[in-house]
Design a protein that fits this description.
nine-stranded antiparallel β-sheet, 13 strands, Gamma Fibrinogen, Chain A, domain 1, single chain, 4 helices, 29% strand, alpha+beta, two-stranded antiparallel sheet
């Protein structure tokens, strides 16, 4: 009887151990937006808590960045952006290691939603988005824009990620330090969604949550960056 119980336990444990755990939100059988757990690292425990969002077409997206009230400081070091920070039910950055893992080997679309303090909401969607590994400085590959926000992102294609303590841009100075963010800066940016939460118009040049068509002296109220396999 004891041997039989051990055998049954071993079989059941083996089934669950080999079960395919959801790598991203689209693999979850969900019907409402909210915080769920995914397993991007080949079923290794523990999982990662993320915010999952369902759009009007029924597509399920994994949110990698979310800002809406300025409660979380985004002017952070390389290590913080590597591992992620904040909480998925609030403001957060998922983490560059997780973003890399999710976007490697399978094509992913990226959707960026932005909203200003007048209640105007717009979006930019990209057919292909991926981030390379840390040894490659989380280099950005993005193309295939559509939307109504204007394309303020694909011009950064091929750029490495930069923070104020790790300068990987192609400007003689440090874009992240100068413009108070962390991003795929070039010389320096056409968007800065991890910039300072100024709360609308600001006098300091290009250091807010800036997006192309709003200019370099207007910081947005809310931003969401989310991905899904296509």
């Amino acid at each position: 009887m004891f041997f039989f119980s051990l055998t049954v336990f071993a079989i059941v444990f083996g089934i669950f151990a080999n079960a395919e755990l959801p790598r991203e939100c689209a693999e979850l059988a969900i019907t409402s937006c909210g915080v769920y757990k995914i397993y991007p690292f080949a079923n290794l425990q523990p999982g990662v808590s993320v915010y999952c969002k369902i759009d009007t077409s029924g597509h399920i997206w994994t949110v990698i960045q979310q800002r809406f009230d300025g409660s979380v400081n985004f002017f952070r070091k390389w290590q913080n952006y590597k591992t992620g920070f904040g909480q998925p039910f609030g403001e957060y950055w998922l983490g560059n290691d997780v973003i890399h893992e999710l976007t490697t080997g399978i094509n992913h679309a990226l959707r960026i939603e932005v909203e200003d303090f007048n209640g105007t909401s717009k979006y930019a969607e990209y057919e292909s988005f991926s981030v390379s590994s840390e040894p490659n400085k989380y280099r950005l590959l993005v193309n295939g824009y559509s939307g109504n926000a204007g394309d303020a992102f694909s011009g950064l294609n091929g750029q490495s990620f930069s923070t104020y303590d790790q300068d990987n841009d192609i400007w003689p100075s440090n874009c992240a330090e100068k413009f108070k963010g962390a991003w795929w800066y070039s010389k320096c940016h056409s968007s800065n969604l991890n910039g300072l939460y100024w709360g609308g118009a600001h006098t300091e040049y290009a250091s807010g949550i800036n997006w192309g068509s709003w200019g370099y002296h207007y910081s947005l109220q809310a931003t969401t960056m989310m991905i899904r396999a296509t």
